[in-house]
Amino acid sequence: MHETYGLLEYMPSVFRALGLTIWLSWLSLIIGAVGGLVLALMRTSGWRVLSVPALLYVEIFRSIPILIILFFFFYGAPLVLGINVSAFAAATAALSAHASALMTEVIRAGIESVGRGQWEAAQSSGMTYGQVMRHVVGPQSMQVILPPSVNIYIMILKESSIASIIGYVELTATGLLIREAHGGGFAILGIIAILYFIVCYAISLAGGALERRMKIAGSGLHMDGTR
Amino acid sequence: MNSFSFSLRAIVPYLGELQTAVLVTLAMSLATIGLSLAIGLVFAVLRQSRSAPLRWFATAYVEFFRNTPLLVILYFAYFMMPVIGLRMSPFQSGLVGMTLHFGAYMTEILRAGLIAVPHGQYEAGHSQGMTNFQILRHIVLPQVIRTIYAPLGNQLITIILGSSLTSAIAVNDIAAWMQTTGSDTFRYFETFLIAAIVYAVLCQVINLTRIYIGRALFPDNR
User: Fold this and answer.
1) ipTM more than 0.85?
2) Is the confidence at residue A143, as pLDDT, over 90?
3) Could you tell me if A1 lies within 8 Å of chain B, comparing CB atoms?
4) I want to staple A122 with a disulfide (CB 3.0 to 4.6 A). Which of A132, A134, B90, B117 is the partner?
5) CATH of the domain at A61
């Protein structure tokens, strides 16, 4: 009983840390969505010079742990490039890089879900590539893109916990610090896990509602963006 | 200012430890795959159970572990063991955390396999005079395997990638090798390249094996 009471004092800093976790993962998702859009346009361009690098990028992030990428940005990049990289910058870079690989596949599926005939119809009425993307393909592909994006956000939010390993004090690192200040035990880590659960589960329920609303047609993708 | 030069020479003395680290990663991944499949099978059956509390329990398990970070679960398992009086090595508590986390994903994969076979097919089998074993062997299993084959292959790769997080609780796997060798030699870029290549080779071997076996097993798919 005493142990749980003592932990309550730390709750304000725990909630501040939860805010940092949400900010870090949200920022990474936005950067990842922009990167994913560029890579998806490269993959669907039909030019090998563009589509092969994009494919390689996606495959690399499917076969290397995100922790290794994070170590590269935090320890390796400063040595190679001779610049200073903060823990926050390294974590944002690693998570955005992973998010963009995941988003590429989702956005590509969205673009490909729009039938070939619509492309031809739009182009035969004199629309440019940019116009077709903006007015014809874009709006329709959002149906396929949005629901899995919610799951990618949840994945990135959970993954942002690895920022604690390089010393960025977000939710997980805060839990570890409190544990030390509080003389060991594991109760605080249980509380941290429950906080992650509440946030992620709420987002996934909202995502489920969104998906039902948009009545996603078979896109050939699982909800987590894998094939 | 930039005086970086690429050199692998400093890494050479550490390659012996890399070999051990690869074995640790493989052992952790294989043990997790076996145990999480077992856990997943139990919970997949529980989720189909007629008893509501059992169903609820299984659903709560799946939703909790799918919505919490693996790293937090690993720390939780690591710090909990001594408090509840269990003496476990980092590898063992890592395996507990990995199994709990990936068991939830396995449950969902196996459940999708189980519900892929409509009940009418069991009745059809019985009406043809087939025994339960024959129905399982000739009707149910082929369809279940076909349904879970691709997601299971993806999951194997996710488990190998996820096992890198056990380095945070002092398991000496490839990710831990990269960090200790990097800080010993200050050759972070070279150790990063080696670790990345080792992981990529492990994952691509599994991926290609999955694709080739898949083509042999299900020639009519794609």
Assistant:
1) yes
2) no
3) no
4) A132
5) 1.10.3720.10
Its domain, for residue A64, covers 2-214
Q: In this structure, is residue A170 part of a structural domain?
A: yes
Binned at pLDDT 50, 70 and 90, residue A30 comes out as very high
Exposed/middle/buried for residue A158 (C-beta within 10 Å: 0-12, 13-18, 19+)? buried
If you average pLDDT over residues A50-61, what whole number do you get?
93
Residue A97 amino acid letter = A
Q: Does B76 contact A186 at a Cβ distance shorter than 8 Å?
A: yes
Segment A161-214, tens digit of pLDDT: 999 999 999 999 999 999 988 877 888 999 999 999 999 999 999 988 887 877
Residues 6+ away with beta carbon under 8 Å from B138: B125, B130
Nearest-CA residue of chain A relative to B74? A189
Distance, CA of A123 to CA of A183 (rounded, Å): 68
What gap in Å lies between CA A129 and CA A190, rounded to an integer?
A: 52
How many CB atoms lie under 10 A from the CB of residue B16?
9
Closest in A63, A175, A192 to B203, CB measured: A63
**With pLDDT > 70 as the criterion, what percentage of chain A qualifies?**
92
Average pLDDT, integer, range A143-161: 93
Instruction: Kindly report the CATH number that applies to the domain delimited by B9-217.
Output: 1.10.3720.10
Task: Kindly list the residues from chain B whose CB atom is less than 8 angstroms away from the CB atom of residue A65.
Answer: 161-162, 164-165, 175, 199
Q: What is the pTM of this model?
A: 0.88
Whether the CB of A204 is below 8 Å from some CB of chain B: the reply is: yes
Does residue A222 form part of some domain? no
Torsion of CA A93, A96, A97, A103, to 10 degrees: -170
Distance from CA of A129 to the nearest CA of B (A): 30
- The letter for the amino acid at B82 is P
What pLDDT is attached to residue A120?
85
Per-residue pLDDT tens digits for A71-90: 999 998 888 888 889 999 99
- The one-character DSSP state at A213 is H
Q: Considering the domain boundaries, does residue A70 fall inside one?
A: yes
Whether A3 has its CB under 8 Å from any CB of chain B: the answer is: no
Place of tokens 């590539």: A129
A206 in contact with B, Cβ within 8 Å: no
